[in-house]
Amino acid sequence: MGAKVLERFPAGAPRGSWPAEEYAAALRAEGEPATVVMDLKSDAFLVVVPAGEED
After folding, report:
1. Which end of the chain is more exposed for a tag (fewer CB within 10 A), N or C?
2. pTM (2 decimals)?
């Protein structure tokens, strides 16, 4: 099973700021199964959803 990246956020957000988590929470509130994962290679947080059958 794959995942589709919806948004990328740099890992260097100011202390106490979680923009990727906030974005994913907003998507989950709308019914999207969004998750935040860390891409170590690019040093960024990715907001992803499961890839659908059509992808």
Report:
1. N
2. 0.84
